[in-house]
What does this fold into?
Amino acid sequence: MKAHTDAIFKALGDPTRRAIFQRLSREGEQTVHALTDFAGVSQPAVSKHLGALKLAGLVRDRRQGRETHYRAEPKGLGPLVDWVAQYGAFWRDRFDRLEDLLKRMDQ
Amino acid sequence: MSETSAEARTVVVERNLSYPPEKIWRALTQPHLITEWLMNNDFKPVVGHNFSLRMEPQPNWNGVIDCQVLVVEPNKTLSYSWGALGLESAVTFTLTPTPTGTLLRMEQTGFRPDQQQAYQGAKYGWQKFFANLEQVLAQVP
It folds into this structure.
């Protein structure tokens, strides 16, 4: 299991961060101010959550004047999909081993 | 044949094996045989039995998968829960006799938060999140 996948799960493991990410996915780019109004927590808390999402590659930011704008980076979810796909590869590999074992087993 | 569906979050792997179901059942349910093809384990074919599958520890993961036996229908169906990395799913093996042997199907499904692991308390949010995941993924080029 990839460390990066773990980072994504950790970033999205928090309900507030998940809500922020979903809002950005649905509504498009938002300022930190708008997100603070939406999230109902302090602006420093929102900034911290956004930092965690950014670290996991799930959001991107851009500065314009005095405001920082954030938008979702849906591509950042890629490893999560890979994580499911990874199980497919895992089981195919184990089925190979199972077949080898069956060959060696007594009837 | 195999398929992976992000939408249903289900992993299916099927294989035609030229052995009778009884023999495959042994490989799926006898601990020393499970070790040979899957992982170290303390499995027992008893519904409700809790056991672990153990892999080599990896960065950020101790390599332990927490399981509980859900279904035991000898030579037909074996199912157990599979808890790892804070998510719990269920693994179901189905054995169907064919003219040449057995069709073995593995379905791993229902990836959802394991309440006993890292993301305790976020269950509702996770379900909602997964419900929306498909919508978000639709935007991935």
In short: The first helix of chain B runs from residue 21 to 29. The helical segments of chain B are 21-29, 31-37, 123-137.
